[in-house]
Amino acid sequence: MTKLSTQHLLGIKDITKEDIELIFSTADNFKTVINRPIKKVPSLRDTTIANLFFENSTRTKISFELAEKRLSADVVNFSVSGSSVKKGETLIDTVNNILAMKVDMVVMRHPNAGASLFLSRHVSAKIINAGDGAHEHPTQALLDAYSIREKHGIVKGKKVVIVGDILHSRVALSNIFCLQKLGAEVMVCGPTTLVPKYISSLGVKAEFNLRKALDWCDIAIMLRIQMERQDIKYFPSLREYTMLYGINTQLLASLKKEITIMHPGPINRGIEMTSDVADSKQSIILNQVENGVAVRMAVLYLLAGRIVGGK
Q1: In which element (H, E) is residue 75 found?
Q2: Which of 178, 186, 223 has the alpha carbon at shortest distance from 204?
Q3: Domains of the chain from N-terminus onward
Q4: How far apart are CA 277 and CA 250, in angstroms?
Q5: Which end of the chain is more exposed for a tag (fewer CB within 10 A), N or C?
Q6: What order do you get walking across the sheet with 74-79 strand by strand?
Q7: What burial class does residue 29 get, using C-beta atoms within 10 Å of its C-beta: 0-12 exposed, 13-18 middle, 19+ buried?
Q8: Exposure of 227 by Cβ count < 10 A (0-12 exposed, 13-18 middle, 19+ buried)?
């Protein structure tokens, strides 16, 4: 297989295991590229990519922009704070205006679930979902699974627990779909108020005791508490949350095995985990950041329809 089964990357739910494996093998090639002295390849020369971020983002936006530039694409950055959206322009108007500038691909982050799907039905450009509300964040899940594969050699059979604000997390949902397609077992852990009731219907176990979850898992993906998406109080205080669901070195040392610690970022140090855990040898957080560029290069390259191996 040398081609993705889909025209866009809207969510992990819409792609196959074979698509994921193709993205990973392509990312392997690009990882060697970004570790060379000359880090650019001409793969997407003459391809114009627009980055549309209707929500604030630092890591994802920089990662996509770096991936695009490493592939020699022409890049247009669009930020809602300085745009006509503030003046009442609709999403479709904004995109049509950008497409009138002959854009080939659009990378979009939007606060509303389904925004990238809506876009894909109305414009001819290839669409990559960089996060839509609390729905999906497919490239984050791909780079997380790729990082697990790099660290452990295989994803199949691994036990992965996702800890924290599952209810509001697009990362959690995409990770569940991706890890399950690759044969991993998935558990979620957090306060009962932050674990959605439908979680068992996805074939995912729920555990509300962090110690039990860590005893079970090989890998723990820690999530940020998303205060900006919470309109009511889901737990008494951050201090209490940290006591019950935060990881420190004492807790890690008390486990009978060594587990891998991951985080999609940004880390709230001292809440989800202490600084010494984030910076420990068990953490692969910085590997996730590096792998994000290679995985996003692979996604852009494959969706652009270039022949694999023709770099």
Answers
A1: strand 74-79
A2: 186
A3: 12-136+290-303 (3.40.50.1370), 138-285 (3.40.50.1370)
A4: 10
A5: N
A6: 74-79, 48-53, 105-110, 126-132
A7: middle
A8: exposed
Residue 117, amino acid: L
Query: What are the tokens at 299?
Result: 């996604």
Are 126 and 304 a contacting pair, CB within 8 Å? yes
The DSSP annotation for 228-240 comes to GG-SS-SSS-HHH
Residue 226 pLDDT: 63
The residue behind tokens 């994000």 is 292
Rounded CA separation 226/230 (Å): 7
Is residue 300 a contact partner of residue 41, using CB atoms and an 8 Å limit?
no
Contact status, residue 293 vs residue 66, Cβ threshold 8 Å: yes
Helix (H, G, I), strand (E, B) or coil at 163: strand
Contact of 15 with 274, CB cutoff 8 Å: no
> Does residue 249 or residue 227 have the better pLDDT?
249
Is the pTM higher than 0.90? The answer reads yes
